[in-house]
Design brief:
Shape: rod-shaped
Largest sheet: 26 strands, mixed
Radius of gyration: 49 Å
Strand content: 35-45%
Oligomer: single chain
Length: about 750
């Protein structure tokens, strides 16, 4: 080969060799140089202290590897973030054709601490550092279009610790896993897969299909046993709670767009297990085994919330009334008047809510009332509620079953609409309720303790335009009322409860009561419980003061009504017998069921009028006897009635009075002619005769004489023209006396 040719070949080879050597030197030196620069000039680069253990490069395959990077907080005390390894591979030859192609981005074991204090974050200084106060010049359009091609983006391991200093919340995420096979900036959707473990327990899996060009995304969220404990600090902002926990599991699909971030379409399942909430005294406010929600479709843009199922099981809670003004739920919430005003001004809009199936199973509530004179505690267990096709507009039916106390049964139903509580139907059926459990209410309202008995209740109520009409049928068996407590000032302490219940009970100690209750529920003073007790107490007063009303058949005649006789009647009239015949039959039925009662009989009259009328009758009798030449013993019943029929102003009687007493007023003449003792004797004789006639009648009807109690004569009757016979009921000694005041 000629020397010139050799020289021509040798020089390029030397140049290429030198370039290769330089490239090799640069390839090996670039990493250490970059490491040194970052470690020495980190404050200039990002405003924070950054250290890097090692940087290696391979320019021939476009690979950069950074190991052991740490960035400190702004105060250079705590670590802000770090990672073990970052690997980036770029295809350098694609740069020639205006394409940035990254074949791999791998991040191993990244760690970061995110701290929030109100609206401030610990990374705000980084954002501020790179923010420019100067307006960026408008970029001139580049005729050359660069293509960005990102592939095989992977994150392995790592931790993120989030802290909210303002409210004291903290939770961590670990074992982070991220896979993005390819990021598309146009055309196809980018698929992203994220998996991580939470420090408090639980796993999260995310799959995202994102369209870079249109901003639309399709997100699948799989959350398993996520602990709700970190939510506690946020709850404390509005509630007085010391503990809150539970395990959240979800399998939800969400579709939306980054252009309208509040508009989403979601479906899937949500489940929360082992829920616990405690108040500040470490008492369980509520616990629940499981809450399961099946989401058919949620479309926030259309305000559509459609649920296949909401199922709640194993709820346990307590409702405690401290006084008439507040309860344990009032103490649970923190009042915020500003929030209340804001809530009132906000409008919920037209929400379309539907729930195909709602169930509450195996739940219980302990109802405690400390507002009474005695503490009342009633456990309601095995609560089961189910509803179908629940929505905000249409009518729906809710069904309830529960156990009350030890063996009581509760069934109920509700027919109405969530948008209109002014019109509804409510049915409640109680069976086998121990009356002793209700004793604190009975003591509070009437001062009578209850020691035994069983209650059943059938209540059918309708509310129309906020007005309640309630029909309540009570059936009570073996009710035992103890002696009235004198140390208690009850709200209705003057109620003859024992007397009323005794009268109402049959021979089997069963009581059936119809208790209608009405009222305007829109009235601020309306309280259903108090209204029921008031109605019940009014019934007891009515029964005690008119005991025979309890035995009168519906629509039947009141045969125990007052009976009337003329003052001068010495025997019972046909009208009297007609009433007494029916009365005696009813009385025998009453005595069959209540053999220890007596019927009391009271003659009510006006003494002065009676004495005057008896004297006048004596005047008429003497006139009749003289006129007809008869003796008193010879008088027949018809003649006796004829004497009664003589008018006070009969001219012949007036003449007779003038002749005998020298006065023309027959009454004045009668009082003048007959001595006081004589008229008094006739007065007593006629009263005794009426009593004897009544006693003989009832005994003749088969009613024992000892079941008749003739009370002293009431001589101050307002009815002056006749005798009134009043029938009452004498109760056994073990039943309280009936003493009522005007109220």
């Amino acid at each position: 080969m000629k020397p010139g040719v050799k020289k021509a070949i040798k020089i390029p080879c030397i140049i290429i060799g030198v370039i290769l050597i330089l490239l090799i030197i640069i390839n090996f030196a670039a990493g250490p140089i970059a490491k040194s620069y970052v470690n020495n000039h980190c404050k200039e680069l990002c405003g924070r202290t950054v250290t890097v253990e090692k940087i290696t490069t391979n320019l021939f395959v476009g690979k950069v590897k950074i190991m052991g990077l740490k960035m400190l907080e702004l105060d250079d005390m705590e670590e802000f973030c770090s990672f073990d390894t970052l690997v980036v591979k770029i295809n350098p030859f694609k740069l020639i054709s205006n394409e940035v192609k990254l074949n791999e981005i791998t991040l191993i074991n990244p760690k970061a601490t995110i701290i929030q204090d109100g609206d401030a974050f610990n990374f705000d200084s980084l954002i501020d550092f790179y923010a420019s106060d100067e307006e960026e010049p408008e970029e001139e359009e580049d005729s050359t279009n660069w293509i960005i091609n990102l592939n095989n983006i992977t994150l392995k391991g790592g931790e993120v610790d989030y802290r909210d200093i303002a409210i004291g919340s903290q939770f961590g995420m670990g074992n982070l896993q991220l896979e993005i096979p390819h990021i598309y900036f146009s055309g196809e959707d980018t698929d992203v897969g994220i998996n991580l473990d939470f420090a408090e327990g639980g796993k999260l899996g995310l799959k995202v299909a994102y369209g870079m060009e249109n901003g639309k995304y399709d997100l699948d969220i799989n959350l398993e046993d996520f602990s709700l404990a970190p939510v506690l600090p946020y709850l404390k902002e509005s509630m007085k709670v010391s503990e809150f926990d539970g395990k959240l599991t979800t399998d939800i699909s969400v579709k939306g767009s980054t252009e309208h971030i509040m508009n989403i379409i979601a479906s899937g399942d949500v489940e929360i297990n082992d829920i616990v909430m405690k108040d500040m005294e470490e008492n369980d406010v509520i616990t629940a085994d499981k809450i399961k929600v099946g989401i058919d479709k949620i479309d926030t843009e259309k305000s559509l919330f459609a649920f296949n199922e909401i199922s709640i099981s194993g709820v346990r809670t307590e409702y405690v009334i401290y006084d008439s003004l507040h309860n344990n739920l009032d103490d649970l919430f923190i009042e915020d008047s500003a929030d209340e005003e804001e809530d009132k001004s906000e409008s919920s809009g037209d929400m379309n809510l539907t729930i195909k199936k709602f169930t509450l199973n195996n739940s219980e509530i302990i109802y405690t009332d400390n507002s009474l004179l005695e503490k009342f505690v009633l456990p309601i267990t095995n609560i089961n509620v189910d509803m179908d096709n629940l929505n905000l507009i249409s009518q729906f039916t809710a069904r309830l079953k529960a156990q009350v106390g030890d063996k009581g049964e509760l069934k109920g139903s509700f027919d109405g609409s969530l948008s209109n509580f002014s019109n509804m139907k409510l049915n409640i059926f109680l069976k086998n309720i121990k009356l002793k459990d209700m004793s604190p209410y009975c003591v509070h309202y009437t001062a009578y303790p209850i020691s035994d008995g069983i209650l059943s209740l059938s209540s059918i109520s309708t509310i129309t335009n906020n007005y309640l009409n309630s029909s309540n049928e009570l059936n009570i068996l073996n009710c035992t009322i103890e002696k009235k407590r004198k140390d208690v000032k009850a709200e209705y302490g003057n109620i003859p409860l024992k007397a009323g219940l005794y009268i109402l009970s049959d021979r089997n100690k069963k009581i059936s009561i119809d208790l209608p209750v009405t009222g305007n529920i829109d009235d601020p003073s309306f309280k259903l419980g108090k209204l029921i007790w008031k109605t019940f107490c009014n019934l007891m007063v009515k029964i005690a003061t008119s005991p025979f009303d309890a035995f009168k058949k519906e629509g039947g005649e009141d045969n125990f009504r007052d009976m009337y006789m003329d003052i001068t009647d010495r025997s019972l009239t046909v009208e009297n017998y007609q009433q007494l015949n029916k009365l005696s039959e009813e009385l025998k039925d009453i005595l069959a069921s209540k053999p220890d009662v007596k019927m009391s009989i009271t003659q009510s009259l006006d003494r002065t009028t009676n004495l005057n009328q008896i004297a006048l009758f004596r005047l008429k009798m003497d006139y009749f006897l003289e006129t007809n030449n008869k003796t008193r013993e010879e008088l027949t019943v018809e003649e006796y009635k004829a004497i009664q029929a003589i008018r006070d102003k009969d001219p012949k009687l007036i003449d007779y009075a003038k002749e005998k007493a020298n006065v023309r007023n027959t009454t004045e003449a009668a009082m003048k002619l007959y001595s006081g003792s004589e008229i008094e004797g006739m007065y007593k004789m006629m009263n005794s005769m009426r009593e004897r006639n009544l006693r003989e009648y009832f005994v003749g009807q088969g009613i024992p004489a000892d079941k008749l109690s003739f009370l002293p004569i009431d001589e101050a009757s307002l009815d002056k023209s006749r005798i009134t016979i009043k029938f009452g009921m004498d109760l056994p000694d073990n039943v309280d006396d009936i003493e009522l005041d005007e109220e």
